[in-house]
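ok so i was messing around last nite and threw this chain in just to see what happens. nothing serious, just curious
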Amino acid sequence: KLKIPQGAPQLVQEMFKLMNKNKLLVADVADGSGISPRAISDWRYKRSPTLQSFQAVLNNFGYEIKIVPKD
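result:
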């Protein structure tokens, strides 16, 4: 189970929750995405992903970003 720091961006936290739910490691979602496992790990603690990088990783394991109206 991957630790999800509270200081990480909300979307990054959600992505790591999905990874934990699906029992995926960073290497699993990196493979085929074009984004290095190191860069993905850094999203939790050091930097925020670009939109393009974030989409590439999400798409790689079957998710997408959508804009929806606020509740």
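not much to say yet. The mean pLDDT is 93.
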